[in-house]
Design a protein that fits this description.
Strand content: under 5%
Order of helices and strands: HHH
Oligomer: single chain
Radius of gyration: 18 Å
Helix content: over 70%
Structural class: mainly alpha
Largest sheet: none
Shape: elongated
Number of helices: 3
């Protein structure tokens, strides 16, 4: 975890923003994969015939992402929304 003391603030912020950009690119890749799935298969078919363990893991990941980024959104200054 990055240091947030006086001397390390600038470096920690730069590192945090670099990791945020990396996460955003990985999320964009995941969104593209989900869009391909969504465009090729009806949601009912995926829900009915998709492998249960894979669906549960995907749901858990999507839910965790939503909760984290929703929390960030709620903490962001009002002018940034």
């Amino acid at each position: 975890m990055a240091s947030w003391d006086e001397g390390g603030d600038r470096i920690a912020i730069l590192q945090m923003n670099a990791e945020l950009k990396e996460a955003q690119l990985e999320l964009l890749s995941a969104q593209c994969a989900m869009d391909r799935l969504r465009l090729n298969y009806p949601a009912g078919s995926v829900a009915r015939h998709g492998q249960r363990d894979v669906l549960q893991k995907a749901w858990a990941s999507a839910n965790a992402l939503y909760e984290y980024y929703d929390g960030l959104h709620k903490r962001a200054p009002e002018h940034d929304r």
